[in-house]
Amino acid sequence: MVIDAEKVMFYLEELYQCGKQPDGTFSRIAYSKEDQEGRRLFAGWFAEIGISTRVDEAGNLIARMEGRNPALPAILLGSHLDTVPDGGRYDGAAGCVGGLAVCEAMKKAGYIPDHPIEVIVFTDEEGARFGSGLFGSSAICGQPLEVSEEEADGCGNRQKEVMEKSYGIRMEDVWKAKKEPKDVKCFLELHVEQGARLDREEKAIGVVSSIAGVVRFEVEIFGEANHAGSTAMGDRKDALVAAAELIGEIPEIVKKTGKEFTVATVGTIQVSPNSVNVIPGNCRFHLEIRDQEREIMEAVEKNAFAYLEEVCRKSGLEFRVQKISDHDPQPMQDWLRKQIEEAAKEMDYSYTILPSGAFHDSLAMAQAFPTGMIFVPSKGGISHSRYERTEKEEMKKGCEVLLHTVLKVDNMK
């Protein structure tokens, strides 16, 4: 069986171009018309090889290639097609296209697997629009999902309305998307590394050992808006200054509390009244913490908010903290990781075993099913960016390891 590398790169480029915006950026934000167009393209490519697709109650797009024995548990492949604003060609899309390439290779060779194979495009992995990702994969795993009636995007569109309008998602029916463990042999996700290790070490394949947990908080600091010219420095209750003190201390907190792969980030910030001549009376931002160990994440959280409490106490400010998403760290399944290693060895591709600092749909899937991840290099470690780049030969090798891992799993007794 042969992976058609030219078609793989063609598919990735077509998906990328469907996200082109008038301002020259490239975005397929979840539920957007660009996201919908990408899914239509993807479903059409499956139709061309005689495989039908459906959309489940959580909006996941699922293509199913039947096996010789439909009663056997399915081998699941896939990832996501939604992107961050001005995202790259390969993040998420590589795993979806890799699944398509596996099915194409089997069809072209006349090979019928014993197990059914399902390729899944998960709904809203990124969480770029409404702040909490892994929606579709969490639904398939049967994890509780809540959508606030008040949650809205930057344009004021309510999440529930957007979900129903774009993919017919009704929250009261999402539970029906759950797959039972007895119906799933395993889940495999091909992905660009989103880090520099493979590129730096000139390795073709990354065999993922574990995925970092991710916890996100919305933090709001309440100060006092006042005139910027007539309020003395000692009389101020500046919410932005307090936020800046914590943000500036985050690297030191991580250094003292964390380990090699511990990270914490403030990536959004809003101030009010947001005027050049008014002291900020309110500041709201998001803090995200990631690590391979839950205890480390909790230690960073504790130290960060203890520091903020002291800052606010000294300045006479109040603050509130709301946890908006929380995903435990997840190890990959040992027996599946070994199958990926064996596939790389048999093809004589260089590889290394490494953890993932980025979260993926595999983070959710690993909580319910045997899960494995395959990384391919991302040049310079760049991802979530239009400058994300993986060469054709590197992508081909990743797809080939995915294909041969599927064959090995399919033949396991």
Short description:
With 413 residues, the chain is α/β, with parallel strands linked by helices. It has 11 helices and 15 strands. The strands form 3 sheets. Strands 1, 2, 3, 4, 5, 6, 13, 14 and 15 form a 9-stranded mixed β-sheet that branches. It has a 4-stranded antiparallel β-sheet with strand order 9-11-7-12, with helices on one face.
Cα gyration radius (Å): 23 Å
Strand content: 15-25%
Average pLDDT metric: 95
Number of strands: 15
- Fraction in helix: 25-40%
Q: Residue ranges: pLDDT <50 for 5 or more in a row?
A: none
Describe what this molecule looks like in 3D.
- With 413 residues, the chain is of the alpha/beta class.
- 35% of the residues lie in helices and 23% in strands.
- The protein is built from eleven helices and 15 strands.
- The strands form three sheets. Strands 1, 2, 3, 4, 5, 6, 13, 14 and 15 form a nine-stranded mixed sheet that branches.
- Strand 1 and strand 2 form a beta hairpin.
- Helix 1 crosses helix 11 and helix 7 packs antiparallel against helix 8.
- The longest helix is centred in the C-terminal third of the chain and has 22 residues.
- The chain is globular, with a radius of gyration of 23 Å.
- The mean pLDDT is 95.
What attributes characterize this protein structure?
single chain; 413 residues; alpha/beta; 9-stranded mixed sheet; 4-stranded antiparallel sheet; 11 helices; globular
